[in-house]
Amino acid sequence: MEFAHRTHARLNRWPWLFLTVFACAMLGVGGCAVLEKDADQASKPDLQIPEMTTSIGSKQGDTDEQVVSYIIHLLNTSAEPIHVKWVEPLLSDAFAMRVLSLDHRQAVDVTLAPEEGMEISGELVFDAHGLSKDQILDLEPFMSGMNVASERVLALPGP
């Protein structure tokens, strides 16, 4: 009789053990989903360029010197203000070899509030001597990205 009582007591533990393991597993999966969501938000940049426009034209009628004009829309997607110090276009290798100016950095010095955006425009003069219209278009994309220097204020921990 004692053996049957001990066996019955062990069997009664299985549902509790199963429920405990199942609850821990569900909490772990739920925790992983929260961590994944936080990781996605952490990988999303606070400054984004949702739009960009470029155009090409000659510099004062001189076909040997052409100008690529650009306008970017810079958007602060964070919940905090961000001070944008400067921007610099990152040029493709083929295009960079023909650009006449060495410094492409452009001072901005503007603080963007959360969800605020601004337009930044610039020009890049390049040597088009000996290039046909198709060869100039073959240099595209002229830019591969924008280097942006920014500052933000971080709160200190504590009361």
Structure, described:
- The protein is α+β, with helices and mostly antiparallel strands and 159 residues long.
- The protein folds into two domains: 1-44; 47-151, Immunoglobulin-like, CATH 2.60.40.
- Helix content is 33%, strand content 41%.
- The chain contains three helices and six strands.
- It has helices at residues 2-43, 93-96, 133-138, and strands at residues 47-59, 62-76, 82-91, 106-112, 117-127, 143-151.
- The strands form two sheets. It has a three-stranded antiparallel sheet, with no helix packed on it.
- A hairpin with a 2-residue loop joins strand 1 and strand 2 (62-76).
- 10% of the residues are buried.
Give the uncertain stretches in residue-range form: none
CATH top level class name of the largest domain = Mainly Beta
Kindly report the spatial arrangement of strands forming the biggest sheet: 1-2-5
CATH architecture grouping of the largest domain = Sandwich
Shape: elongated
Structural class: alpha+beta
Task: Give the number of helices.
Answer: 3
Under CATH, the topology of the largest domain can be stated as Immunoglobulin-like
Share of β-strand residues = 35-45%
In total, the number of strands is: 6
For the termini, the CA-CA separation is 64 Å
Number of domains: 2
* Rg result: 29 Å
- Largest sheet composition: 3 strands, antiparallel
How confident overall, as mean pLDDT? 82
Give the helices and strands as they follow along the chain: HEEEHEEHE
Residues in helix, % = 25-40%
Compose a concise summary of this entry.
The protein has 159 residues and is an alpha+beta fold. The protein has helices at 2-43, 93-96, 133-138, and strands spanning 47-59, 62-76, 82-91, 106-112, 117-127, 143-151.
